[in-house]
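thread from #wetlab-drylab

HS: before we spend reagent money on co-crystallization trials with calcium ion, can we at least see a predicted complex? here's what I'd submit
DV: go for it
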Amino acid sequence: MNTLVTDNTLADREATEPDFNRIADRMVSRRGFLARTAAFSVTAFVMGTTALTPATRAAANRLIGFRAIPASGADTVIVPEGYSWHTLVSWGDPLFSKGKPFDQATRGTGESQELAFGDNNDGMSLFALPDGRFVMAVNNEYDNPEWLFPTDSKDRSADDVRKSKAAHGVSIFEVQQNGNTWQVVIDGKLNRRITADTPMAITGPAAGHALLKTPSDPEGRLALGTSNNCGNGRTPWGTYLTCEENFNGYFATDAEYSLTEAQKRYGIKTKDRGVQWYKYDDRFDLSKSPNEANRFGYIVEIDPTDPNSTPRKHTALGRFKHENAEVAIAADGRVVVYLGDDERGEHLYRFISKNRYAPGNDASNASLLEDGTLYVAKFVYAGADMSGRGEWIELTHGKNGLTAENGFSSQAEILIHTRMAATVVGATTMDRPEWVAVHPTQAEAYCALTNNSNRGVKKNGGGVEQAVGGPNPREKNGYGQIVRWRPDGQDHGTDAFSWDLFVMAGNPEVHPGTHYAGSANINAANMFNSPDGLAFDIDGRLWIQTDGNYKDKDDFAGMGNNQMLCGDPATGEIRRFLTGPVACEITGIAFTPDQKTMFVGVQHPGEKRAASNFPGGGDTVPRSSVIAITKNDGGVIGN
Ligand code: FEO
Ligand code: CA
Ligand code: CA
């Protein structure tokens, strides 16, 4: 979700415009914030030194009001005292009355899946409509074949592949609250499934380029489908952004085929990884449609209020394994989008639109993501510095070495092979950039760097050494960290920034006195690993979701199942808010505009046939689900 616009839904937009004036007003208080936190920002990250103990910080905290919960290995969701949760929707639930209720025995067919909520829900946004209705857009990142099919057949039928493709993409559906319970509106006018076969327009400088032309689309302007939709974003003009991540795993061939350097950089292999789409759809056979993979790896913009609209893949925001798309507005009104590329040793990006956001003028805003400038982050530090300076380096043809001699003959090639362009300009290799979150009132952004077993050990995909240091301070980093940056001039549109680490995850019980214990704001009561989902609510609480090692032993002893925590950006305090069921990942977060309901994603409970029956219990099949969390006294979540 995008915190800048959480309270700027379609319903209240009229009352709150112009948005970026409000944002500028909120930023006025930033000087006070810096003064309050200056003492904390550097010294607190030196192991064992902090002015406040966790206990005294907890007592003083006005931002976070719930009582932290312990780690858990239970096969359920646990939330703090005074909170309740219920399941909103699970994989296979029909969104239309002509669909079929989820069948525990067969798990459905291609046809039923096309009418139902997809698998592995991830990023999501809730949109409040002017007439009081709510529509939710939820990513369905991939499928769990061990549960998608009744038998774990290695030989998939045509209908198995149809079902798998329909389990991917985006589910859009209306929701309503009855008493304390949220429900899907079956047959809601806006209900829609977007799958790996839905037609999508290609926009921006790379549209129509030779590298995007295929046998089924000789113009290179109309792609079919989106897949591996990981994190998300939302725009101030009311559209949904879905982010294509691990698309590389869906291409294969049985023919003799020689991969290009670019295909290798993006992790494409000729051997099928089990999905078998290439057997029934030539688009996914590398030898038959070698450019098809160049049409995945983008930010896709969807209008959730028009089920007949054509989603648009925006090449201007680059092609890589997109995690999420966090939108902010620069001081001059241009749109800033922060973008992570989730791979060991890949990079952190920023897009700035050419034109300015025009509050209320959705027709002009609609094309903002079609034209702009892409940048990649370079962090500056010395030795073991845990804070420093940095800059955004422009990825524009003819600048910074991005010339024909270095392999780039046009802007289109830079946008299609963005990873390689980032290597040319000397971008910093990162520990797997996952979600970026922008603070609602301070000009600062946070990115979860989830982990990197290759840090200090192996080169990245571009052959660049992954040196230990700066925002990636640990060799063989199994725990992850969250880096934070503050743009100069309190403006997300400026090219220079200061950075520090908000937290280094770790295990103070297993690795006391070392970097692997984590930063000073990590203790035995709140430890976790592999921060991934990241979002602010409108009050400035930072919600942290994990996709980590849940074996609860060795390096990860005491951490339990994947979880969600809440951080205070000013004090650094972190409290555990939620624990998930067995073998799940917690990912995806959305709020109602009044912040009294929080929606959270529980992805792949029981993956690899781990013993889970979430959420149905008994002997039911484990199913990825979106849950709704409310406070029993009807209050704001988290306070
Ligand atoms: Fe889909 Fe990087 O998580
Ligand atoms: Ca993720
Ligand atoms: Ca992850």
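DV: The chain has one domain: 2-177+194-245+297-631.
HS: ok that's useful, forwarding to the group
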